[in-house]
Design a protein that fits this description.
This protein has 89 residues and is an all-alpha fold. The chain is built from three helices and no strands.
């Protein structure tokens, strides 16, 4: 088995034939849906950007929840510590 066959996974002619068949089928499906290669590119790009923006929005919500919770938890913690300190002394 030559290095080229090993790299391609089959003989070059068979790989070329498989690529032609798959390309034809993908082209038919894309044509049926009215997609172009740029539509696929922009769809993937917009998906990644939406995830990116949602991620930062989630971090912002997380920070807001932390501040809101800290407004209750920290004073309660300080009061409990002060009460237990006075009781222990």
């Amino acid at each position: 088995m030559s290095a080229l066959n090993r790299f391609l996974g089959d003989t070059p002619l068979r790989v070329a034939l498989k690529l032609v068949v798959v390309s034809f089928l993908v082209g038919m499906v894309m044509n049926a849906f009215g997609w172009s290669p740029m539509d696929v590119y922009y769809g993937i790009r917009n998906f990644v950007l939406d995830l990116w923006h949602m991620g930062f929005a989630a971090l912002g919500r997380f920070g807001a929840y932390m501040v809101l919770g800290a407004a209750v938890v920290i004073p309660a913690f300080l009061i409990i510590r002060l009460l237990s300190y006075r009781r222990g002394a």
